[in-house]
Amino acid sequence: MKIFSAEQLYEADKITIEKQQITSEDLMERAGTQLFQWLHQRLNGAPVPIHIFCGIGDNGGDGLVVGRLLIEHGYNVVVYVVNCSDKRSKNFLLNYDKIKNVTKNWPILMKGENDFPKINSEDIIVDAIFGIGLNRCPGGWVKKLIQYLNESKAFKLAIDIPSGLYSNSPLEDYEAVLKANHTLTFQAPKLAFFLPETAGFVSNFDVLDIDLDLEFLYNTEPIAQLISKPEAQRFYQTREKFGHKGTYGHALIVAGSYGKMGAAVLSTTAAFRIGAGMVTAFVPKCGYNILQTAIPEAMVITDTEEEFISTVSFDFEPSAIGIGMGIGKNKATVAALKKLFKDSEIPFVIDADALNNISENKELLKLLPKNSVLTPHPGELKRLIGEWKNDYDKLEEVKKFSEKHEVVIVIKGAYTITVYGDKLYINTSGNPGMATAGSGDALSGVITGLLSQGYDPLLASVFGIYMHGCAGDITAGQMGYEAVMAGDIIDNLGEAYLDLFAKPETDNEANGKN
Ligand SMILES: NC(=O)C1=CN([C@@H]2O[C@H](COP(=O)(O)OP(=O)(O)OC[C@H]3O[C@@H](n4cnc5c(N)ncnc54)[C@H](OP(=O)(O)O)[C@@H]3O)[C@@H](O)[C@H]2O)[C@@H](O)CC1
Ligand SMILES: [K+]
């Protein structure tokens, strides 16, 4: 699914109106009807009090439409107009008139703190104050209203975007954003929904299809791509009937040090489970028995050193190398990295201490093999590119880094973002249970295993992250978030493959919705 900027959505809006020969009021009615249907399906006529807070732009207009439709269907609705400006949009005014035709209880005009209504915890708040037209930080009593609504225990449903949040630019005031329990967004999710600093305001979201012009949506380059099951299905490369183990490559995993040999075990197993034909683990001597016992399928080469890696040498041509998991920061290990990067042209997956070693020895940056995949978590990323001002600044810096060094960067997080040049791919699978030791080692093994099978570095990253997340979701479904361990995620990679083409069990899944 594509993520568009606010500007692109306004353009889509304009083109849709022209091509479908409808008015902007018709389009708003379409949007409001979708909102109404979503609520009606869930409330089923329940007389729960619904408080709709409308701004004075088109987001407020959406609020008025859904308010009118709810009133027409007998719901218990109070509509408020948040008088944040003397202006009124055309569609707001048209729908303001229309709502007066269906109720004697006209919208209540709010001008200040004295107008804040009493809201009970069982009520529903619909937030239609600001949408993607927010052009400055909410202040004064409007900010106080947002805070007042945030303090309420009532369920908060945001229309299009929580008020106070910009769809694709940095937030100035965290105290002036509505914290929604659910967001219903039109046509395409917004970038702010996926970034660590702002995703929490959105909570869960649904995308409501308002039939914007398909040709425009299809032909327009988005600001980011969302990766869910339909995309992952397209990335999957079928296994050949007459393939042999050589067809699926020979991955080399360079990992482990004394006390951290588990990292090597996990990434080697993950490379196998995702489908690598052969995997060799290169480990310090102390890892020999551990590896041979834990994964008899793997071949093992040991370093000359007992407890850490000092010189990586092997006598075959790996199709991909995954390096860094649990290797520590010994000087000899840094020298080994340097030599390995210098001598190799095949793509690497570079993780954990390999990244930290690069950050502390910036001369290694120049040696990074092109098309390598770097998989930092936020701390490792900071050490690599320096501090950032906000999430958008971070994305810009990572794009520059990716372009300069011609590498793929995987920014790990609740929504892991893969950056390649100026392109962003946001993963949707995965869950909080996966925040557990070794989960990252598993991911590195997965990406290395896919690279070794011939997936290109970008596809191996984007597809691998989806599969890793999906295996995590399957695991959480079996045992709950708390019990998930990295080994379980790896064990479920097979289930994740089966799930990729399993028949959908729900309508939402069938529609490819989130
Ligand atoms: N595009 C689509 O596909 C569709 C879009 N639709 C809907 O339209 C929404 C966008 O509507 P929109 O453009 O009218 O902007 P919106 O967010 O209502 O607010 C703008 C108003 O707020 C004001 N204002 C801004 N910041 C402020 C502040 N801090 N403090 C105080 N005031 C502030 C600003 O006032 P001004 O700056 O002019 O004084 C302006 O009047 C979109 O989110 C979706 O819900 C659907 O109906 C159909 C399809
Ligand atoms: K809103």
From TrEMBL:
What are the required cofactors?
K(+); Mg(2+)
Q: Kindly list the positions annotated as binding (6S)-NADPHX.
A: 58-62, 131-137, 160, 263, 326, 377, 441
Q: Which family does it belong to?
A: In the N-terminal section; belongs to the NnrE/AIBP family. Belongs to the NnrE/AIBP family.
Q: What does this protein do?
A: Bifunctional enzyme that catalyzes the epimerization of the S- and R-forms of NAD(P)HX and the dehydration of the S-form of NAD(P)HX at the expense of ADP, which is converted to AMP. This allows the repair of both epimers of NAD(P)HX, a damaged form of NAD(P)H that is a result of enzymatic or heat-dependent hydration.
Q: Where is the YjeF N-terminal domain?
A: 9-218
Native species: Aequorivita soesokkakensis
**What GO molecular functions are on record for this protein?**
ADP-dependent NAD(P)H-hydrate dehydratase activity; ATP binding; kinase activity; metal ion binding; NAD(P)HX epimerase activity
Q: How does it assemble?
A: Homotetramer.
Keywords assigned: ATP-binding, Isomerase, Kinase, Lyase, Metal-binding, Multifunctional enzyme, NAD, NADP, Nucleotide-binding, Potassium, Transferase
Please give the name of this protein. Bifunctional NAD(P)H-hydrate repair enzyme
Which residues are listed for AMP binding in this entry?
K412, G413, A414, Y415, T416, G440
Binding of K(+) occurs at N59, D127, S163
User: Which gene produces this protein?
Assistant: nnrD
One annotated GO biological process: metabolite repair
